[in-house]
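Example record

The entry below shows one chain as it appears in the dataset: sequence first, then structure tokens.
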Amino acid sequence: MTTVQSATAGHAPEAGDASEAGDAPEAVDARVPLRRLAPLAAQHVLAMIAAPVSTVFLVAGTLRLPPGTTASLLSAVLLLCGAGALLQSLGVWRIGGRLPFVMLPGGAATALFLQIAQEHGAPTATGAVLLAAALLLAVLPLYARVVRLFPPLVMGVTVLLIGVAMIRVAARLVTGPDGTGEPRAVLLAALTVAATVAAYVLLRGVWRQTAVLIGMAVGSAVAVTTGLGAFAPAAVSGFALPALLPFGTPRFDVLAALPLLVFSLTTLAEITGQTVLNSETVGRTPAPERDVPRVARADALVSLAGGLFGTSLMVTSAENIGIGRLTGVRSRFVTAGAGVLLVVLGLATPVSRALAGIPEAVVGGSALVVYAVIAVMGVEMLRRADLSGTGTGSLTAALALTMGLLPLLSPDLYAGFPAWARTILGSGVVAGTLTAVLLTVLLGRFGPGSRRTEDDRAGKAGATHP
């Protein structure tokens, strides 16, 4: 396995860094001094804060929620993100991967939540979240039986598609939902990227490790001083603690919940990719059969809590993995610190409103750097697979990437399909991963490689028994 080199190579190792695979357990479990932990944790929070805040206001706008309910929902989402990051980073019994993860409301899951809420009412959407989270918990005992379906080729496809899909999400932060970017927004994002790269190239030690944070700070300062952007805090008044069942008593309708139920099952593929990716980033030998069920249990339990507080499914996110790869800081206590900060922000609503005011173009510019690093990691993982012309690996990767990229290149391709089919095929990560899994099984069993293996076995049998 290729060792992930520290971003601070050439300098004295610090807590959270490692340069050899043998240092990995110490690196991921290293306790970082508070003076370093605070800025590093803040960097993770700033890199992901736009997602939960924008999700809340998307839900509030679509469902026309009053300000009080919106404030409650924002507080709940931030608290759940913090609790999820703590649970995944620290782990309790067999819950949580004990890896440097953060947790977010799932973008695709939120879209399905809103679809159900608009068609069947918000209480039914809440019930669908609770059903989907319970289903995910129920199927986890079967995961070990299918872990062999995720070899390096499948994982490389998954990670590459995650990176590409997130680059598209980051681009929408710059261009807006219609995809037409104003020149000043594009310029502001470009300046943020340039500041991040300059900080990474020119600085050393802890300053280099906070390159993303420095890039966002420079981008925000440029936005305010030049007029390229402006802070626009969320319009919510006062403090607000989460309200239990803000949409009323949940309604359980299995047919109405079907799109979200299907989605909860397909998230296992993405969880697998992100868990392997994060393990490799921190230098730990990937153990999907052990770690993926733990990560998924934490996702499911936090999602159950989210359903009670009016949110959609909460998912472990790759938002922070690129930062870990870029900075070389591998300690899970950094993301645990980010979880603490998120909990504080959830309780201090005025602070979360201020964070929501960071210009989207600045967040998008920083995210482009982070997500591009993730995509390159997928390419590195594919290099470990057999993509020679004599085997079936190249064909499997090509078709899987095609299925994964089609929803991104042609978003309306499956518009006429049933909802359950759109859920699966319309997600590039899910469609590409499932294609890679199916082709790996079918071509491995019936392809030329399988026939060559059978011939080899027959030859060995003949040599043993003349």
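Notes for this example: Residues 1-25, 453-466 have pLDDT under 50 and may be disordered. The two ends are 40 Å apart (CA to CA).
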